[in-house]
Amino acid sequence: MQISKTIDDVVVTAISLNRNIAALPGSNVVLGSLEPAKTQSTSINSLLEQVPGLYMQNGTYTTSRLIFRGIGSRSPFSTNRIRAFMNEIPLTAGDGSTTLEDIEIWGTGRIEIIKGPASSLYGPGLGGTLVFRPLIYFPYRWSGLVVSENGSFDFFKVGAHLAYSDTLYKISAGLFRNVSDGYRQNNNYERNNAIIRLQRSVNRNKLSVLLNYINLYGQIPSSVNRETFYNSPEKAAPAWLAVKGFESYKKLLGGISLNNYFNTSIENLVSIYGIITNSYESRPFNILEEKRYTAGIRNRLAITKDKLLTSAGFEIFAEKRQWGIFETDGGIKGKMEFDNNEYRYFINLFMQSEWDPDKKIKISGGINFNNTLIKTVNTFGLPETAGDKTGFQVLSPSLGISYKIGTNTYLFL
Question: Do residues 45 and 99 make contact, with C-beta atoms less than 8 angstroms apart?
Fold first, then answer.
């Protein structure tokens, strides 16, 4: 007895409007919502490493960097030159760094991965772009998910996800906790994630609200010398162990999006978002306190006409970073040494079009213009200044051609 099942085309929206991913001119991957069940779910690292060309290095749960085909390898402790978004909300800070290790894998419905600077819609990311689509609802009126996982070194994970869906409303909420003692000394880790998503549909309009809260604490064992690495790799660096070095932060990410479907060929999506981060890091040489306040707006207009699909819009981004350096006395905060304020502003203007001149040929072209301004003000520890300003512009064009040579086989340039 033979059973057949038709599977819908996998579509990706990070690079175009809605297309079969195989037809796009580039190297693109979509990880679906069932992928977390295939791997350990402490962090997003092991899931992303399943994708060819991606490499995730991590010293601890809180120090990771993602490398796309070698891009990002020069950043020592974080992910750089790779942009990431949760829907239309950027996870990439104003300095270009992206923190991926605090994302809850079970709260992610789909991950769209674009290798290389192929998408003009999300700005200049030399290595590539990741777009996370939160898990919103299951195909039932009420549904739920319970997760529990145990592992080595007292690792424990527990979480729950509840969802409701009808013709007008889609509501989902998830709460997850990850705890581990780690293999090494001074390697304890705790992370709590709360995710809420609401969606309301009225006629041709769709209003979405997203809230994501992260509370993280992670000790830092740091690096050891060669002899210790081979003979006692479980030990922490003596200086970090002495002060019980750690980093902790609380992050609240929120956004409101409105989809307007004017007709079958014109759609507009506007998103307003904000991010608040409060972090603290205790190190052998000093203590760092940092606060970030981020706000922005993105607007994208998509028009479909005959065989031409065009998407254009803008993004305005503003970020204030307050950071101070304090003396440390065995891990206890002492007097302030430095205090600085950094202001980062940028605007992205983008446009991308796709044209199907033939059933076998697809042509994609786009352009992104980014104008960035950075202002630094020293308020303590150094002579006070009116502000050092740095500005630069980046123009990023793209062009791709895809040719279908078989049932599901394409050549692209």
Answer: no
